[in-house]
From TrEMBL:
Keyword list, A-Z: Methyltransferase, S-adenosyl-L-methionine, Transferase
Species this protein is from: Cucumis sativus
First-tier enzyme category under EC: transferase
Protein name per UniProt: carnosine N-methyltransferase
Any Pfam family hit: CARME
GO biological process, one term: methylation
EC number: 2.1.1.22
């Protein structure tokens, strides 16, 4: 018997090591996607230049400003890259990134090849309409626990152990062409170090040995679709952390915040109500809920999102500290070059000074895996889902878990469409996707012990460029459900 137990323990150890190696390889792939952003973006500009060079002279003369625009694009790319490299410098991986991953045989987790990852309302390389990236990104680790980290402290966001590291200062003044030349020189130094993937801090010191995992020898060649996810993250930053995203936040977040404020009028500092935000993305909604006086926990599956939210929540030191150019990667539907190349300052608030309630945290991992744990049963006073429930392979599973983790009498507030993320996974026969109508979804919700308190439709956009000639709009379902108590279930 002891020999069988030893074999079982050995197999479990081997499986755990394999899973961890897969997680490391997946995280390397995501970091590589971020690091490949400058090179992939430069290839785009070169493609624009080749097309322009093929024009006859008379046609070139009509677009004589294009060469200057291409150089401006390069400076914008440099600024975005500068932000990305500083973000990666601040990231503290929860795993040993230098470990050998040869045991993976070149494989990734099943979702590592998800080529559907892009912003809602845009199309991927195959021309298929894509869903938004949160919770559908490729290559994120899925551990046996499903949990990347969970913080229950005054530290604002994952990863666990992240510290406030110095960063190069930025100057946010604008110049005539929308790019600051002085800042560009500093950014270019960082971008030119791309072969070493190393940014300098404000004292001119090179990156420390703790970031050896950024060594180019450990980087992977990633498909361009992975870099597209980085571009989506840059646009998501505008939605959550820029003044320009305020309109979308008022459309999506304000109804939720007003409903929470109304439903929990007596929020006491000694015992604040607890609210969970699955699919928290870059963390703004979870932070706003915390500022209302709730113990708030955001849950996010995407490491692309988690790396970025950690940087903004934990490492930004002032309002408008960083400048990004979120709209440069699309030449379509632009009213003018100045619209396409306009800068956006982030963040619009200083997260650490926003007035969060103690206990605010971000938890990384698959929603079902993390919150199916017995310790979560009946733990939460409220669950808030915003543009989330359609990210499920099986939406019934999401509803079941939400019902289990809510206290009796707890509330579920939802806002979002039903753009099922795995609905068009052509060529992947084992990719399950259950896609009920809204009518069916509401019947399922009632089955799991909820009663409708409020329901309406909210018109909104998602990561939309407000100055674009194309505006994708959603007529999102907004509802408040209350979980019936056990005695109410018995009487019915």
């Amino acid at each position: 018997m002891s020999g069988a137990r030893e074999d079982e323990d050995e197999e479990q150890t081997r499986q755990r090591k394999l899973e961890e190696a897969l997680e490391v390889k997946s995280l390397r792939r995501i970091v590589s996607a971020y690091l490949n952003y400058p090179e992939a973006s430069e290839e785009d500009v070169k493609r624009y230049e080749r097309s322009f060079s093929k024009l006859p002279p008379a046609h070139k003369a009509l677009l004589s400003h294009f060469p200057l625009k291409f150089e401006r694009l390069r400076r914008c790319i440099s600024t975005n890259s500068y932000f990305i490299f500083n973000m990666l410098q601040a990231f503290e991986p929860p795993l040993d990134m230098s470990q050998d991953t040869d045991c993976c045989d070149g494989s990734y987790p099943d979702h590592a090849h998800d080529d559907q990852f892009c912003c809602r309302g845009e199309r991927n390389a195959n021309g298929n309409l894509c869903s938004r990236e949160s919770n559908v990104c490729s290559g994120e680790p899925t551990s046996t626990s499903g949990r990347m980290c969970s913080l229950e402290s005054k530290q604002i966001c994952c990863p666990e152990g992240a510290s406030d590291s110095p960063k190069a200062s930025t100057i946010n003044q604008e110049v005539e062409n929308g790019v600051n030349h002085d800042q560009h020189l500093e950014e270019k130094e960082v971008t030119d170090k791309h072969s070493g993937h190393c940014a300098s801090d404000c004292n001119g010191n090179d990156c420390s040995s703790s970031h050896e995992w950024l060594d180019p020898s450990l980087q992977l060649n990633v498909p361009l679709v992975d870099v597209d996810k980085v571009r989506c993250i840059i646009r998501n930053i505008v939605r959550d952390w820029a003044e320009e995203g305020q309109k979308e936040r008022e459309q999506c977040y304000k109804p939720i915040l007003e409903e929470l404020h109304s439903l929990f009028p007596d929020r006491k500092k000694e015992s604040p109500p607890a609210c969970l935000v699955p699919g928290a993305g870059l963390g703004r909604l979870a932070l706003e809920i915390s500022c209302l006086g709730f113990i708030s926990q955001g849950n996010e599956f995407s490491y692309y999102m988690m790396i970025c939210s950690s940087f903004i929540l934990n490492h930004t030191q002032k309002v408008g500290e960083w400048t990004i150019y979120p709209w440069i990667h699309s030449n379509s539907n632009s009213l003018s070059d100045s619209d396409q190349l306009r800068p956006v300052s982030i963040p619009d608030i200083h997260p650490a000074s926003a007035g969060i309630t103690e206990g605010f945290s971000m938890c990384g991992g698959d929603f079902v895996e993390v919150y199916s744990d017995p310790s979560q049963v009946g733990l939460w006073d409220a669950v808030v889902t915003c543009f989330f429930i359609d990210t499920a392979h099986n939406i019934i599973e999401y509803i079941e878990v939400i019902s289990k983790i809510l206290k009796d009498g707890g509330v579920w507030i939802n806002l979002g469409p039903l753009l099922y993320h795995f609905a068009d996974m052509y060529g992947q026969e084992d990719e399950m996707s259950i896609e009920p109508s809204l009518e069916d979804v509401k019947k399922i919700i009632l089955h799991y012990g909820f009663v409708f308190e409020k329901e309406r439709t909210v018109e909104t956009t998602y990561t939309t460029n407000p100055r674009s000639m194309m505006q994708n709009r959603y007529y999102a379902a907004f509802w408040t459900m209350r979980k019936k108590s056990a005695t109410e279930d018995m009487t019915h």
